[in-house]
Design brief:
The chain is of the alpha+beta class. The chain contains 18 helices and 22 strands. It has a 6-stranded mixed β-sheet with strand order 14-18-13-17-15-16.
Length: 640
């Protein structure tokens, strides 16, 4: 799809910006909902903003060189930055844009073009057998591991990455995507030592044999966990998250200090100096990267260095971006910052807004009272002040109130207008009517009055806009008798706690999900498939599909009424193609939202980046739904 950047200018654009700001200012700065004006309408406005402020932009003439500086409130990671298990979108962007190459990848641009797989390590997108069960790939010549390994990658290095995915101790967080490979699940279950469905006839050829047709298999081969990994290094790091500080790269950049890593034996290996999850990540050029083996459409690789630092002061991060002391951040800008950029003609074009393909949500644990009751979960959806939540995020420019578990963009807008509960300030009477049907409403007056309704913990992030939502959620739930106590923590702490089912977190509003690739299976697979429930690194936070046997294994109580499953529905949709596939996913989306209600979908979000005055080139990566670090540039003369 041809794409272009349209400069935000003119009276119409200014009027739209002011309208969006007015909507954002409907409540107080804490996200209160006293004024419900400027609420949930605005999908056309959002599309217009994306048209104006989305996609690529250049300021001056981009050139190679300089240091691109990014800061975040923590170094977000779900598995110690080990690519085998890491599941944060920002980490995927760092991997795919800068550090790691895979058989297939993306061009790291915005829109539909950014969702199309292209050859990366492979010479083409693969040769597929007539029955659709065998995929054969030939590797390009001249692709090498960075220092200190300094050798050509082979098909066996890619096969080894799949062995790690099937190694339970590594805590891979999305191994279910590779279950169609013959023998993969046998290794995962300890029944076999090698994956029978992966063969390497020679160093330049790898063959995958599947047990069932999997039309999206090429997309699964573009996920970071499938990047080649040198066994001589990674064999020393078989515990969850360990390899993250020893990553050997194949892309244009490597961790600063990689060349000093001693790999003569496992005991000699010490963490590479350029990465510490407490302070950040520094990347420098990989001397073994040959641009001739890559495509400039995939990776421009213009800066000489990337510095991704930790700064716990969110406001200070965005002040530094505006002053030119930073080039960007993965964080969502606070409400007040968004208002300033929307209303200032001097800095408005430094604000970039793209389709987020993501939903921020509050999950309810189906094994923990009172959320083991469907009526409580539905009542929470009915009572939630979604207009207040939207304002806390900065108004309509930040996205639409969530209406289901899928973002509208992932099904081509097929759920536009879908409103199973409400999309406004909450429907208290309808919520009370639903609550009356719950066993936790002992006198059927519409209020949750049993013991489990009191002191319900909400685990949330400790910075805006998440922290701005906390009082809104508490006030909304109190209207149906659910007394919520919010506990706020850094993002990584929220993630790791939710990923450990034995901690029995009842409710958490500090969560979001973006697609793994452009298909709804990337929501239903990791978030609702029973086989995705893990003892550590779990993403199925609500525990949909949990069995009594699995509950015992992961250390949670199994409710007397059981837990609903959608495994059969997912299996039905998976082999379908085209419109039939989309229709199947849309039907399942509605089924999960209405008959299970594991979440309160809070906001179907856009992706907003603010860029510093020294940035000369910016692009958005639709794959990671973050800034495209593969296509940025900076002018050192403009940095402070």
């Amino acid at each position: 799809m041809a794409r272009r950047w349209l400069r935000w200018s003119g009276l119409a654009a200014l009027a739209l910006a002011l309208a969006l700001v007015a909507a954002a200012c409907g409540g107080d700065d804490n996200g209160g909902s006293a004024d419900t004006s400027g609420g949930t309408s605005g999908s056309e406005d959002i599309n217009a903003v994306i048209e104006q402020l989305g996609g690529p932009v250049e300021f001056g003439t981009p050139a190679a060189g300089g240091t691109y500086r990014i800061a975040n409130t923590d170094f977000a990671n779900s598995d110690g930055f080990d690519p085998t298990g890491e599941y944060f979108g920002s980490a995927w962007g760092i991997y795919s844009d800068l550090m790691l190459r895979t058989l297939l990848s993306y061009n790291h641009v915005a829109g539909n073009a950014g969702n199309e797989v292209v050859p990366d390590i492979a010479t083409d997108t693969g040769q597929v057998s007539d029955d659709g069960l065998t995929y054969t790939f030939t590797l390009k010549d001249g692709i090498k591991f960075g220092p200190p390994v300094n050798r050509a990658i082979t098909s066996k290095d890619i096969a080894y990455s799949f062995q790690r995915l099937a190694t339970p101790s590594v805590a891979a967080q999305y191994p279910f995507y590779y279950s169609p490979i013959e023998g993969f699940d046998d290794v995962l279950a300890g029944k076999a030592k090698t994956i029978s469905g992966i063969t390497t006839p020679d160093d330049s050829t790898i063959v995958f044999k599947l047990t069932e047709k999997t039309g999206d298999f090429p997309f699964r081969l573009a996920m970071p966990a499938t990047s080649p990994i040198p066994e001589e290094v990674a064999k020393c790091h078989t515990a969850a998250g360990e390899y993250g500080r020893y990553i050997i790269t194949t892309g244009p950049y490597m961790i600063d200090g990689s060349d000093k890593l001693d790999i003569s034996n496992c005991g000699a290996q010490k963490p590479i100096s350029g990465f510490n999850p407490n302070t950040g990540l520094n990347l420098v050029r990989n001397p073994n990267y040959d641009p001739a083996t890559d495509s400039p459409e995939s990776r421009s690789a213009l800066p000489d260095r990337f510095e991704i630092s930790v700064n716990t002061n969110l406001d200070n991060i965005f002040d530094k971006i505006e002053r030119g002391e930073l080039e960007g951040s993965f964080e969502t800008p606070p409400n007040a910052v968004l208002r300033r950029y929307l209303t200032s003609t001097d800095i408005r074009e430094k604000m970039r807004i793209n389709a987020g393909d993501r939903v921020w949500y509050a999950y309810m644990n189906l094994t923990t009272p009172p959320f083991d009751d469907i009526h409580v979960r539905k009542a929470m959806n009915l009572v939630m002040d979604l207009e207040g939540i939207q304002r806390a995020w900065g108004g309509p420019v930040s996205g639409l109130p969530g209406n289901s578990v899928l973002p509208r963009s992932l099904v081509g807008g097929a759920t536009d207008g879908y409103d199973p509960y409400q999309l406004g300030a909450g429907d208290v009477e309808a919520a009370k009517a639903e609550m009356k049907q719950s066993k936790y409403d002992t006198n059927q007056d519409g209020m949750c009055d049993a013991g489990p309704c009191k002191g319900v913990i909400n685990l949330n992030r400790n910075f805006a806009p998440w922290s701005s939502m906390s009082p809104i959620i508490e006030q909304s739930a109190s209207k149906i008798g659910v007394s919520i106590q919010t506990r706020e923590a850094p993002r990584t702490a929220v993630s790791t706690t939710s990923q450990t089912p034995s901690k029995k977190t009842p409710f958490s509003s500090g969560n979001g999900w973006g697609k793994d690739f452009a298909d709804p299976i990337t929501y239903f697979g990791p978030l609702f498939l029973s086989s995705s429930i893990l003892q550590t690194g779990n993403q199925n936070f609500s525990l949909v599909g949990l069995t009594a046997q699995k509950a015992k294994q992961i250390g949670v109580d199994y409710p007397a009424g059981g837990v609903p499953s959608v495994d059969a529905d997912i299996a039905k949709c998976t082999p379908l193609t085209g419109q039939e596939r989309t229709d199947c996913w849309v039907a399942l989306d509605k089924k999960v939202t209405e008959t299970i209600a594991p979440w309160v979908p809070l906001i179907d979000a856009t992706a907003i980046d603010l860029i510093g005055p020294a940035v000369t080139k910016y692009e958005f990566d639709q794959f990671s739904t973050e800034m495209s670090m593969a296509h940025v540039a900076v002018d050192p003369a403009l940095q402070k």
